[in-house]
Design brief:
five-stranded mixed beta sheet, disordered N terminus, binds adenosine-5'-triphosphate, 443 residues, six-stranded antiparallel beta sheet, alpha+beta, Beta-Lactamase, Heat Shock Protein 90, binds magnesium ion, 2 domains, elongated
């Protein structure tokens, strides 16, 4: 192991404070140092000067070894801890600390380390990490974020020129290590998103093939369902033509129900296939109440399982909007499914209201539930792709991002308000369809 370089404080080759690399500021309680001094540096940090003695070279070797051993695949605070362990071996009587500013809005990572047996002054000066110390130097870290610093402090005397030089080099080393760690984190993050996206693509492909299978199944169902409807109609007509018609009222009612149930399955399956074919979706005049009714039928299974009461309050003759029926159905299917999930398993109320604003030329739809509500922290993220709180695999986090995409494409808006434990209201606005006035014949 090399000698303690602090013994070399007056080494002939030592460079004045703030020599190579990053800029340095000094905060000192000694009159010989101004309280805030920034010295810019010009010597190339990596170049070794020919006059250096072998002893002075050894601290560079320690720093080099430290630089090579610092991990990149770790959190910043772990990286700083390992850096400080290495630096402590080199500067045992100095205190040092670092403040590494985050690039993603998180709190900065601040770590400090005192020489063995020392404690910090309680009356802290906010500009210093070591306020009670005689001398403190602050090195700016060029780590890709503005404001990161390395602090080096000496408890009883001014830092020696060599200590300052080591600090300057250590700051360069730390900045490079933090830059590498940040790059690694970004690469990891991208790899994670790609993996998530790949899983999503596979899932979407599965759903697409399932859609084709369903379309085939529905096609096969068509003929028998049409037969059931036709034969139940036929049997009803036959029964009515018989003399004992009045006594068979109960049987006729059952026949009517068979026909109705079959017609319902037929309509549902046809709608389902139409919904699964977005390519055929062309803009047109869309009656939102009809779309909402259809979406409610699609979500019936979700509501039944979760004891949900539907309260819809709107006029079926509201003016139409211009849009794509299939996509707007998808909007309401997603909103109703989310509401059902938020109210399961105890149930609740799903209230759908609508009104048209003739002045603004918009249709407003409110979808309100009495479910779990959305936490304040989650609220800014709910429309982000892949944001989900459904960790049980029920959600991919794409529903609301698709909803917002569809509303954007329709020049509409969507807004959520929620009270945790009380429920959530989604408010949608869609521009009304421009009604072309028809020229009525005179008279
Ligand atoms: N009505 C609601 N009540 C409570 N939380 C909701 C409601 N709607 C959405 N959320 C919250 O917003 C998150 C995102 O919703 P989104 O529909 O985008 O994804 P998901 O429902 O989790 O999954 P997916 O819709 O892709 O199956 C949900 O995980 C949930 O936390
Ligand atoms: Mg959803």
């Amino acid at each position: 192991m090399s000698r303690d370089p602090e013994e070399l404080g007056t080494a002939p080759n030592s460079v004045p404070p703030g020599s190579p690399g990053s800029s340095v500021s000094s905060v000192s309680s000694s009159p010989s140092y101004p309280s805030e001094l920034r010295v810019s540096d010009s010597t190339h940090p990596g170049r070794r000067r020919s006059s250096e003695s072998p002893l002075a070279q050894s601290w560079r070797d320690v720093l080099l070894r430290l630089s090579l051993s610092l991990p990149i695949d770790t959190e910043l605070d772990q990286l700083l801890r390992e850096f400080m362990d290495g630096l402590a071996a080199l500067l045992p009587s100095a205190a040092f600390g670092a403040c590494v500013v985050s690039t993603n809005g998180a709190a900065p990572v601040v770590l400090s380390r005192l020489p063995v047996g020392m404690a910090l002054d309680i009356d802290r000066d906010p500009t210093r990490l070591f306020p009670g110390f005689h001398d403190e130097r602050i090195f700016d870290l060029e780590d890709g974020a503005v404001g990161s610093t390395l602090h080096l402090a000496s408890p009883l005397q001014a830092l020696s020129p060599l200590q300052t030089q080591i600090g300057t080099q250590a700051a360069l080393l730390l900045a490079a290590a933090v830059r590498r760690a940040r790059l690694y984190m970004r690469a990891e993050e991208s790899a994670r998103s790609i993996r998530k996206l790949q899983a999503q693509v596979i899932q979407n492909e599965k759903l697409a093939s399932l859609g084709q299978i369903v379309a085939g199944v529905v096609h096969e169902l068509n003929n028998p369902l049409t037969s059931i409807i036709a034969y139940s109609d036929y049997l009803k007509r036959m029964a009515r033509s018989r003399p004992q018609y009045a006594e068979q009222e109960d049987e006729l009612e059952r026949l009517r129900r068979i026909g109705e149930a079959a017609a319902r399955i037929l309509n549902f399956s046809r709608d389902l296939v139409a919904y699964a074919r977005p390519a055929a979706d062309v803009p047109g005049t869309v009656h939102v109440p009809a779309i909402v009714e259809k979406a409610l039928i699609f979500c019936e299974h979700e509501f039944q399982g979760a004891k949900i009461q539907i309260l819809s309050d709107f006029d079926g003759h509201l003016p139409p909007v211009r849009g794509m029926a299939g996509q707007l159905t998808q909007v309401f299917v997603n909103l109703f499914t989310n509401a059902a999930h938020a109210m399961a398993p105890d149930g609740g109320e799903l209230r759908i209201t609508m009104h048209a604003d003739k002045v603004q030329q918009t249709l407003t739809v409110e979808v309100a539930d009495t479910g779990t509500g959305i936490a304040e922290d989650d609220m800014p993220q709910i429309f982000e792709p892949f944001f989900t709180t459904k960790t049980d695999g029920r959600g991919t986090g794409l529903g609301l991002s698709i909803v917002r995409g569809i509303l954007d494409a329709h020049s509409g808006t969507i807004h959520a308000s929620s009270e945790l434990g009380e429920g959530t209201v989604f408010t949608l606005t869609l521009p009304l369809a421009v009604v072309v006035p028809t020229l009525l014949p005179r008279g």
